[in-house]
Amino acid sequence: MHEKYDPGTYLVLANVLIPRDCDTAEKILRDGMKQFPSAAGFHLLLGHVHQSRGHHAEAFYEYQWELLRTGAARTEGADAARRCAELVKKPSSSRELADLMTAVQEMQRNPQLASEMLAEMIRKQGEHFILQLYEAEASQNAGNFIHAADVYRALILRDPGFVPAYVQLSELLRQKGDLQEAEQLLTKAREIDDQHWRLQHVP
Predict the structure, then answer these.
(1) Where along the chain do its domains lie?
(2) Fewer Cβ within 10 Å of end Cβ, the chain: N or C?
(3) Are 168 and 138 in contact, with CB atoms under 8 Å apart?
(4) DSSP classification of residue 19
(5) Assigned CATH topology for domain 95-199
(6) Closest to 38 in 3D by CA, of 157, 158, 162
(7) How far apart are CA 33 and CA 159, in angstroms?
(8) How far apart are CA 63 and CA 43, in angstroms?
(9) What stretches of the chain adopt beta strand conformation (E)?
């Protein structure tokens, strides 16, 4: 597609193709994401593509990416949150998604176990952005700060507009006493989106 198109054009073109031509829709969305990496809505529609193919875990990962990236107060994030909830309730959802929900439930009460479960999922299913994010959070909660920081930095490189990774890494560095870099990360996060939900309760 030509670069003159705006993000909305990519999204509209992809949306009209789902579910009858998911392959072309996915190509359009990935092209649009390259052209407009900060735009909202692309992960939401990628999730719709995967769900139309019956790949529920893949759909959930994309919906979560959109939700955390955009926030539930915004249209795309709210739609992503609704679709996530629907997938979790579906009796036909995959075992992979059920395993993910179990790991997420363990993140507060037994973060080390959650980290191990998520690391195993990553080993089997691949380095999905959301799996890595959850695994980093579980590792951070378990006190494995070095590993968690490395993952957050990798996620920021992968999606430079993903504010939650900046905030999580900032909180981790603050715990370690590295206040200067922690503040630099928050400054960058605010430059990306000073109204982002993840920044609302950050001092």
Answers:
(1) 7-89, 95-199
(2) C
(3) no
(4) T
(5) 1.25.40
(6) 162
(7) 11
(8) 6
(9) none
Which residue is it, tokens 């992809």?
14
Q: How far is CA 85 from the centre of its chain?
A: 15
The tokens for 22 are 């998911």
Report the C-alpha gap between 38 and 18 in whole angstroms: 23
| Domain 7-89 shares a fold with domain 95-199 | yes
Options 2.50.20.10, 1.10.240.10, 3.30.420.40, 1.25.40.10; CATH of 7-89: 1.25.40.10
Q: Phi, psi (5° rounding) for residue 148? A: -60, -45
pLDDT tens-digit map of 119-168: 999 999 999 999 999 999 999 999 999 999 999 999 999 999 999 999 99
The average pLDDT across 8-13 equals 96
Q: Is the dihedral of CA 125, 130, 132, 134 positive or negative?
A: negative
At 188, which amino acid appears? Answer: K
pTM: 0.92
Length of the chain: 203
Structure tokens at 43: 């992960």
Tokens of 109: 């009460």
Q: What is the pLDDT of residues 161-196, one digit of tens each?
A: 999 999 999 999 999 999 999 999 999 999 999 999
